[in-house]
From TrEMBL:
<dbReference type="GO" id="GO:0032993">
    <property type="term" value="C:protein-DNA complex"/>
</dbReference>
<protein>
    <submittedName>
        <fullName>3-methyladenine DNA glycosylase</fullName>
    </submittedName>
</protein>
<keyword id="KW-0227">DNA damage</keyword>
<dbReference type="GO" id="GO:0006285">
    <property type="term" value="P:base-excision repair, AP site formation"/>
</dbReference>
<feature type="domain" description="HhH-GPD">
    <location>
        <begin position="42"/>
        <end position="191"/>
    </location>
</feature>
<dbReference type="InterPro" id="IPR011257">
    <property type="entry name" value="DNA_glycosylase"/>
</dbReference>
<dbReference type="GO" id="GO:0043916">
    <property type="term" value="F:DNA-7-methylguanine glycosylase activity"/>
</dbReference>
<dbReference type="GO" id="GO:0008725">
    <property type="term" value="F:DNA-3-methyladenine glycosylase activity"/>
</dbReference>
<dbReference type="Pfam" id="PF00730">
    <property type="entry name" value="HhH-GPD"/>
</dbReference>
<dbReference type="InterPro" id="IPR003265">
    <property type="entry name" value="HhH-GPD_domain"/>
</dbReference>
<keyword id="KW-0234">DNA repair</keyword>
<dbReference type="InterPro" id="IPR051912">
    <property type="entry name" value="Alkylbase_DNA_Glycosylase/TA"/>
</dbReference>
<dbReference type="GO" id="GO:0032131">
    <property type="term" value="F:alkylated DNA binding"/>
</dbReference>
<dbReference type="GO" id="GO:0006307">
    <property type="term" value="P:DNA alkylation repair"/>
</dbReference>
Amino acid sequence: MSDSPHEVLRADPDIGPLVETHGELTLDPASDLFERLVVSILRQQVSMASAAATRERLFDAVTVTPAGIRDADDEVLRDAGLSRQKTRYVNEVADAFLEHGYSLETFEDAADEEIHEELTAVTGVGDWTANMQLLFAFGREDVFPVGDLGIRKGFEAVVGEGYSRAEMREYAERWSPYRSYASLYLWRASEDIAESVAEVSED
């Protein structure tokens, strides 16, 4: 039987100490892809606290399903705290789900790259947002979201500064096939990661 992700990462000089400090962090796949995608959109370019407040208002104001979002007036979404751009994004995502019937089951047998390509074809879903779905909706084990500021800060804290994103991706190959688990530990590697994790770059 193959080693578990935590057994593999315990042997890594970078991630091993974090496993000892934080215990066995796990991926906890979401039960609803649309809800999780909407939450990721709310988290684009804002602090976790701001996103959480908007999420609470939105979930109180509307039924967060594709049909529920499309049935809601844009002003209701704006009153919940969505910017004009994010209002457009959640509407675009709702349209895509209604058109294609997307769900977690839709992509059950798809490769990570296929899911990423399909999701990023939807307006408002960039590289970071698609990677967050691979991690937190699908629970895929080998995702390294280098576009996330929290990941880059954690990488600097653990590995060192001066790496380009391409160099970070190359370095992270040593954590494959468990780069998602390594990412969970990188997010914990700095005291301010909890706030910075949602400040993202989509390029």
